[in-house]
Amino acid sequence: LRVRWEYTVTPRHRFRKFAVVSDRQRYDQLVAERGETSVWYRRPVPGLAVSDPDVFALEQFTVNGTPVPFTRQVEEAGQIYVVDLGTEVIADGKPVVIAFRFRSLVPRNGHVFHLNIDRPTKGLDVELSYDGWLFPRAGLVFAWTLHNEQVAQLDQAADAQPQANASERTAAGQRTGIAKSSVSAGNDDARPAQAA
Fold first, then answer.
1. H or E element that contains 171
2. Are 169 and 161 in contact (CB under 8 A)?
3. CA atoms within 13 A on the CB side of 52
4. Which of 5, 42, 132, 157 has the fewest Cβ atoms nearer than 10 Å?
């Protein structure tokens, strides 16, 4: 998953931090710090250490389109990226366009991705568009079902109705929005299901 964020702000803090941690106490500590810090909590998952840059990485940070370098600090239960905006941007006291991009590895079978919103946001675009306001700590959740799980749901529904004939099961699947695929597909198949 790649996320690009762009906003206009008059910076008040020289340092901008991005942290991802798998320890609840460390998360609470970072959230309570003064300054500009975006903090994500990721539940510990075997094989996905949040301190690994393959699991989470800040890829780019710009001010008014100019790239700004950043450093990465590794901790036992996470990592923190620190951007130094410099004293000039703060002293100017003028609005600037901040843009950053990060990537995060999300387990395909995890079914949910939560995007934290750490500042008041209006007109968020994430494949879908929401024109209302989003406030800090409110967040946005994406949920999905894998294709083979939809087929399994249909099969379970069919097993629960042994008296129904094949045409009744197909009609029931269409009424509930579940359709059995006529094509063998893997987990990465994004084709819509077809009625059998």
1. helix 166-176
2. yes
3. 11
4. 132
Question: What is the spatial distance between Cα 182 and Cα 151, in angstroms, rounded to a whole number?
Answer: 10
Between CA 101 and CA 56 the distance in angstroms is: 11
Q: Which residues contact 68 (CB under 8 A, 6 or more apart)?
A: 61, 62, 83, 84, 85, 86
The label of the residue with tokens 């819509």 reads 192
* Cα–Cα distance measured from residue 14 to residue 35, given in angstroms and rounded to the nearest whole number: 8
Describe the strand order of the beta sheet including 66-67 as a list of residue ranges. 2-9, 96-104, 56-63, 66-67
Sign of the dihedral through C-alpha 194, 168, 157, 141: positive
Cα gap 86→26, rounded to integer Å:
27
Amino acid identity, position 22: S
Q: What is the pLDDT of residue 142?
A: 64
CA 34, CA 26: separation in Å to the nearest integer? 15
